[in-house]
Amino acid sequence: MKKVAQLGLAVLAALLIEIALYGVFVLLPILPAAQTGFSQKIFYFHVPAFWTAFVGIFVTFAASVLFLVRREKKYDILASCSAELALVFGAAGMFFGIMWDRPAWGVWWTWDPRLVTALILLLTLAGYFVLRSMVEDEDRRARYAAVVGIIAFLEVFITWYSTRLIENVLHPVVFSITGMTIEPLMLLFLILATVGMTLLYVSMLVFRTSVESLRDRIERIKLAIGD
Amino acid sequence: MFGRQFWAILKKDLLLELRTKEMITSMFLFIILTMVIFNYAFGPNVSDFTLVAAGMLWVAFIFTSLLGLNRSFVHEKDEEVIDGLLLCPVDRPIIFMAKAGGNFIFLSLVELVAIPVFIVFFMPRGATLGAGWFVLTLLLGNLGICGVGTLFATISVNTRARDLMLPVLLLPVLVPFVIVLVSATNQLFIAQKSLVELYVWLRAMAVYDIIFLLVAYATYDFVIGD
Asked: How far apart are CA A40 and CA A103, in angstroms?
């Protein structure tokens, strides 16, 4: 039953993303060049990818807090698997973003608050995994990772706040997604892509945590029978 | 009670440093060398450092603080002082406050000696430093660096990579702080100062200090010891 539900979730995610792909590339019109033309279609996958990365980092944060409070291994597994996926979706979102920057803004990279926040988030997550690989003791690794997981989440808001502040004080917003009015059909496919990608994250998270839990169980059994 | 325990741990660190002077000396030399390298990194033709002075100052201080933060826990770990500390009937957060306090004092002392050198080397022409504001900026900056730095130094000294781990963890977290630090210091170096703007940056620094000191204080129990 559990397996069927897992598979169903994955299929549903794939289906929604397929529908969104079809809608975005076949049904929706290509916008005029002033509104960045064909490249604007990256938007439907760039935004959902980042949204999913933020969901991932939030789950890591919540699981880290729960681990520190309850000290149960399953929360540590959940936190690390979710951080892994946040890193993957964040990197994908960043890649889509850089592809879109060039036609939309004329540059590959700009120190815009959104970009800086995303970059810092990715760097912090990378540090999270370097840390995990550097601690052998299981309980200690989980505790350290939980502390960094909590700080990584706060970090997102603080970076956003600081970069916004510097922009508000020093110069007005240079780049913005203005001139792109979202029509109902565009919104529909954006939502479909977002829901699809979030479900993809959830189903990957379920698979990853079950694999990690199994690995953990095997380790324990090995230890019990004296390797 | 709190005060006595805090002071006892802090005094241990201060005495150790006073007798060996190894941390302060190397931090100070490191800062001076960084400044010399900066001078050539920007090329020999730059004579007006107004635009980059604040950034240079904080890059030098932050890298120096990495040295100090690592050293402050290497002793504890190698000489097994930390086990002794954990056996004492002292709350873990007090250990955090004392260690962070020690790091704060060392960083401030090194800055005290390094700043005159910085002024001689790089002080932008025509800059009228508001000494009081400058000191306040430095203190708020050091507090932010040492609070979260002490937490991460405790983590990294217990990993396989030891001191290599600290920059990987600490620098991303410090990026937003560097943004406000440099902006505040910049206000002090430019000719047309705006107190309103300086106030915005100082307030942001204070907010950052409070958030990270609270988080570090709350989570330190999970980081130190077994």
From this structure: 9
Tokens of A117: 């926040």
Q: How far apart are CA A44 and CA A36, in angstroms?
A: 13
Q: Are the Cβ atoms of B176 and A162 closer than 8 angstroms?
A: yes
Contact A62, A36 (CB under 8 A): no
What are the DSSP calls for B99-163, one per residue? HHHHHHHHHHHHHHHHHHHHHHHHPPTT----HHHHHHHHHHHHHHHHHHHHHHHHHHHTSSSGG
Cα distances (Å, whole numbers) of residue B110 to B30, B67, B106, B180, B189: 10, 12, 6, 22, 21
- Please answer whether residues A35 and A186 qualify as being in contact, where contact means their C-beta atoms are separated by less than 8 angstroms: no
Q: Quick check: B173 and A151 CB within 8 A?
A: yes
Q: Whose CA is closest to A47, among A199, A219, A204, A194? A: A194
Torsion sign (Cα): B164, B222, A144, B81? positive
State how far the Cα of B212 lies from the Cα of A90, in Å rounded to an integer: 24
This prediction's pTM = 0.88
Residue B77 class from Cβ within 10 Å (0-12 exposed, 13-18 middle, 19+ buried)? Answer: middle
Joined tokens for residue B101: 């306090």
* Residue A171 touches partner B, C-beta closer than 8 Å: no
What residues have CB less than 8 Å from A76, skipping those under 6 apart? A63, A67, A142, A145, A146
Q: Min CA distance, A135 vs chain B (Å)?
A: 5
| Tens place of pLDDT per residue across chain B (226 aa) | 788 999 999 999 999 899 988 889 999 999 999 988 888 887 777 777 777 888 899 999 999 999 999 988 888 888 888 888 888 888 888 999 999 999 999 999 999 999 999 888 887 666 666 788 889 999 999 999 999 999 999 999 989 988 889 999 999 999 889 988 998 998 888 777 778 888 888 999 999 999 989 999 999 988 887 6
Q: What is the DSSP letter of A181?
A: P
By C-alpha distance, the chain B residue nearest A128 is B169
Quote the tokens at residue A166.
Answer: 């510097």
**A79 neighbors A170 (Cβ within 8 angstroms):** no
**Do residue A123 and residue B148 have CB atoms under 8 angstroms apart?**
no
Closest partner CB to B168 (pick from A130, A139, A162): A130
Which residue in the set B148, B173, B180 is minimally distant from A124, CB to CB?
Answer: B173
CB pairs under 8 A between A and B: 85
What amino acid is encoded at A52 in this protein? T
